[in-house]
Specification:
alpha+beta; 7-stranded mixed β-sheet; 5 helices; globular; binds coenzyme A
Length: about 150
Amino acid sequence: MSKAIFAVLPLGMYDVLRPALTAAGLPADDLLEPGRSFFELSDDDGPIGFVGVEGTGADRLLRSLVVLPGRKRQGHGGLLVAHAEAVARGGGVERLHLLTTTVADFFRARGYQPAERASAPAAIAETAQFSSLCPGSAAYLLKDLT
Ligand SMILES: CC(C)(COP(=O)(O)OP(=O)(O)OC[C@H]1O[C@@H](n2cnc3c(N)ncnc32)[C@H](O)[C@@H]1OP(=O)(O)O)[C@@H](O)C(=O)NCCC(=O)NCCS
């Protein structure tokens, strides 16, 4: 197996990301909106998975985490989350927030704490995912990066 590497996805180069998100039931119609950064993990066999960070300031949204079929359950999801956290921390982010309808346990195992949606800071509550793209039943979790 070749070494997996991370790269920033150039703006608009979402030909693999977009259908992967759609297939996983995740929002994909706002990728070109400002204030989003997406990262790709790949190796010699091609793309493995993606993760995004949305927003500005101390509180940002972890989003668009997806590992491609056939590449799951090999630690890639955890690597992608750790990469997003490292990039965020390097950019001065203090807390990462997320919504998930399916993999709350995956994030809990990686240090994310469940919280009440009503307690989310305005910068997070005002994101499209919070206000419209994700159903109200999605679990809200956050992690302190400081
Ligand atoms: C969630 C996801 C990114 C995990 O990727 P992965 O590469 O398989 O994850 P890893 O191999 O790093 O970690 C696997 C761990 O997550 C758990 N896990 C993976 N998929 C899971 C699922 N659907 N439900 C619950 N737990 C899951 C496994 O039990 C395993 O636990 P362990 O570390 O205790 O053994 C991947 O399943 C995926 O792309 N899912 C669809 C998109 C999605 O739901 N994204 C999250 C949106 S917020």
